Amino acid sequence: MGFNHQSQKKINSVIGRFAPSPTGPLHFGSLVAAVASYLAAKTQNNGKWFLRIEDVDTQREQPGASQSIIQTLESFGFAWDGDILFQSEQTERYQTALERISDHIYPCSCTRKYLQSLSDISTYGYLYPGICRNGINNPDIQNPSIRVKTNKQEICFQDLCQPHVIGQSIEQEIGDFILKRRDGLFAYQLAVVVDDAFQEINQVVRGSDILDNTPRQIFLQQLLGYPQLEYLHFPTAVTADGKKLSKQNHSPPVLTDNDSSDKKMESLLASLEFLGQNPPKRSNLESINDLWKWAFQHWDNDKIPKVMTKPTKFT
Predict the structure, then answer these.
(1) How many independent structural domains does the chain possess?
(2) 18 is in an annotated binding site
(3) 40 with 301: CB under 8 angstroms?
(4) Is 21 within any annotated ligand binding site?
(5) Distance between start and end Cα atoms, the chain
(6) Where's the motif 'KMSKS' region (predicted)?
(7) What would the pLDDT profile of 96-135 be if each residue is shown by its tens digit?
(8) Residue 113: is it exposed, middle or buried by C-beta count within 10 angstroms (0-12/13-18/19+)?
C-alpha cells in the first residue's frame, strides 16, 4: 500500500494547537512555539487554538510540570479554546486506532539493545530492518512492541516555512516504526496523529527539530483515513554554540515565581523578534495586552525566517 504527496486544500478556518510535554517548565524555545502556533491560528478568521499536554510517556513526566506549564501560559496572556486535552486520558482512543489498522501492524520482540548491535544506522537513528515483519523473532518474549509496516513510497509535503518540498522514504530511512511500546505505553507518533484528528487540528506549527517526524505522521494519517494537515516548521532556537534549547540540555525556565511583568514582556518581545515579526520597542508598550494587540494586528507567517536553526541570546 503506497502513499504519495497530496495537494492541500486552502484552509478556511485555522485550528491549531500547542502541545508541550510535561518534562519540566517551559523554556524560551517552548515559548516561541506557543507564540508562533497561537498567532498563526488566532489571527485568522474564526481561528482556534487548543492546548494539549503530551503526557503519553508517563515515565518522563516531571511531577507538577503540567500545572506549571498551564500557569505560565496563563501568566503570559494566552487564551486557549475548549478544555485542555491530556494524552494520558486518551489511551482507549489510541487502542481503537491501532485496531483499525490491524492488517498493517505486527508484534516485535527486538529490544533496543539488540537493534543497537546491528550495523544498519540511518540519519535518524537505528534503521529497523524488518526482523519480525514476517513472524516474531522471539515468540517467548513477554509483551512485544507493536510496529507498523512501512513501504517504499516516498512521503512528500510542502512546509509553510521551510523553502523546499520535504520528502522521506520511511521504509529506507526509518524502517517499520513502533506504535506501542513493550511497556504498554503508546508511541508519540500514533498519539499525536490520533489527537490531531480528534481535535480537528488542520495546521501544526512547531520547531524544525520535529520536522523529520512529519512524514511518519502523514503516513499514519493516510493509513487511518485522516485528513492531511498543513505544517509550518519554524527555526529551532539554539545557543551560540549550536545547542538546542531544551529541557534535556537544562535550558532555564522562561518564567519563575519572582519574575516581574517586565520580564514577561521581554520574553514575549524576544519571541516575536526571533520569529521575524519586528515588534515595537519596549518603551512604546504599556502592558502585555498592548503587545498582544500589536501582535494580532501585525502577525505574518511569511516573515518567519526560512532556516532550520537560529541562535538566540535569550536563554
Answers:
(1) 1
(2) yes
(3) yes
(4) yes
(5) 46
(6) 244-248
(7) 999 999 999 999 999 888 887 875 656 556 688 899 999 9
(8) exposed
- Give the model confidence (pLDDT) of 201-218 as tens digits: 999 999 999 999 999 999
Q: Report how far residue 310's alpha carbon sits from residue 209's, in angstroms, rounded to the nearest whole number.
A: 12
Residue 40 resides in a domain: yes
Confirm or deny that 54 is annotated as ligand binding.
yes
The CA distances from residue 23 to 60, 191, 237, 249, in Å, are: 6, 17, 18, 12
* C-alpha cell, 141: 518474549
* Per-residue cell: 66: 503540567
As beta bridge partners, residue 154 has: 169
What CA–CA distance (Å, rounded) separates 44 from 10?
Answer: 13
Residue 51 is inside which H or E element, if any? strand 48-53
268: exposed, middle or buried (Cβ count in 10 Å: 0-12, 13-18, 19+)? buried
Task: Report how far residue 108's alpha carbon sits from residue 176's, in angstroms, rounded to the nearest whole number.
Answer: 10
**23 residue type, one letter:** T
128 is an annotated ligand-binding site residue: yes
* Four-point Cα dihedral 143, 93, 10, 292, nearest 10: -100
* CATH value at residue 281: 3.40.50.620
247 belongs to an annotated ligand binding site: yes
19: annotated binding-site residue? yes
Is 206 marked as a binding-site residue?
A: yes
Question: Quick check: is 221 in a domain?
Answer: no
Helix (H) or strand (E) holding 270: helix 261-274
Instruction: State pTM to two decimals.
Output: 0.92
CB 178 within 8 A of CB 111: no
- Which residue range forms the structural domain that includes residue 242? 15-88+231-311
Neighbours of 43 (CB within 10 A): 16
The span from the CA of 133 to the CA of 105, in Å, is 9
Q: What cell numbers appear for 231 in the block? A: 505544517
In a 13 Å sphere around the CA of 218, the CA atoms on its Cβ side amount to 30
Whether residue 135 is contained in a domain is answered as no
**Amino acid residing at 277:** Q
Question: What span, in angstroms and rounded, lies between the C-alpha atoms of 12 and 203?
Answer: 11
Confidence of residue 2 (pLDDT cuts 50, 70, 90): very low
